[in-house]
Design brief:
Blueprint (H helix, E strand, L loop, with lengths): L1 H7 L5 E3 L8 H16 L2 H5 L4 H12 L2 H6 L4 E7 L1 H4 L6 E10 L2 E12 L2 E7 L24 H7 L2 H13 L5 H12 L6 H24 L6 H10 L8
Helix pairs in contact: 8-9, 9-10
């Protein structure tokens, strides 16, 4: 993520927990831009990323000068969590992002729910843990679910086997044996909520293999009798077949 931060030219105070890097580059860039707007105190950049309700809240913060009071004290803004349901798939349509904001008093959390609108991400604030920790990095991996771990994140954290299989599925799904693929599908279906993008990828891979196996089973060992050849010609007459 360090190279992406550098490429985007964001504020030096913007950080990204490496363990939370998403597969989808567009999601990564949007989370970084969200953090950068806070680090710079750039209300206009932030406004473009917020839904209407949160734009009004930003207006209130600016009117009371609380926006400037808070952002002037920022030492770091770190992307500490992106929910696994959106982090592990290409082209997610919704996400949950948690930022840790560090100032001289400690580090606190800001939770955000995002949805894809055409090619852009639009964010709205969600409840987060009211605690503070010494540094922003101390919040790494904290789920946006009110500051706790929920859904897929909790299952991955408590299931190393599932975590390893998910990683393998994302990087080299074709190398997973069919037995493991079916097991992974069942485990994902048991999640609440199940990540639709990942589930769809696995179902497509299973269907592809089943189709391939069916095709190879039906094409082998052609009959030596006249009936077999005649049946084939009747089912699929070629351009040069009987007219």
């Amino acid at each position: 993520m360090a190279s992406l931060l550098q490429t985007m030219g964001v504020d030096a105070r913007v950080e990204f927990a490496a363990s939370e890097a998403p597969v989808d580059r567009g999601l990564a860039e949007s989370a970084i831009r969200l953090a950068d707007a806070f680090a710079r105190g750039d209300d206009e950049a932030l406004r473009q990323m917020l839904d209407k309700g949160d734009q009004q809240m930003l207006d209130q913060l600016m009117a009371s000068e609380q926006w400037w009071d808070e952002t002037d004290r920022i030492e770091a803004v770190r992307v500490v969590s992106i929910d696994a349901g959106s982090r592990l798939v290409e082209g997610p349509q919704s996400t949950q992002v948690m930022l840790a904001v560090q100032d001289p008093d400690g580090a606190y959390l800001l939770g955000w729910s995002g949805r894809k609108v055409f090619e852009d991400w639009v964010f709205s604030a969600v409840p987060s843990n009211g605690e503070e920790r010494a540094r922003a990095s101390a919040w790494d991996g904290m789920s946006p679910m009110a500051g706790g771990m929920g859904g897929m994140d909790a299952m991955l954290a408590g299931n190393p086997e599932l975590q390893a299989m998910m990683t393998k599925a994302l990087t080299a799904m074709e190398s997973l044996p069919m037995e493991e693929l079916l097991k992974l599908k069942a485990m994902i279906e048991a999640m609440e909520p199940a990540p639709p993008g990942m589930l769809e990828m696995i179902e497509q891979e299973i269907a592809k293999r089943e189709k391939r196996d069916t095709g190879s089973g039906g094409s082998g060992g052609g009959s030596s009798g006249d009936g077999g050849g005649g049946d084939d010609r009747q089912r699929d007459p070629g351009p040069g077949g009987p007219g």
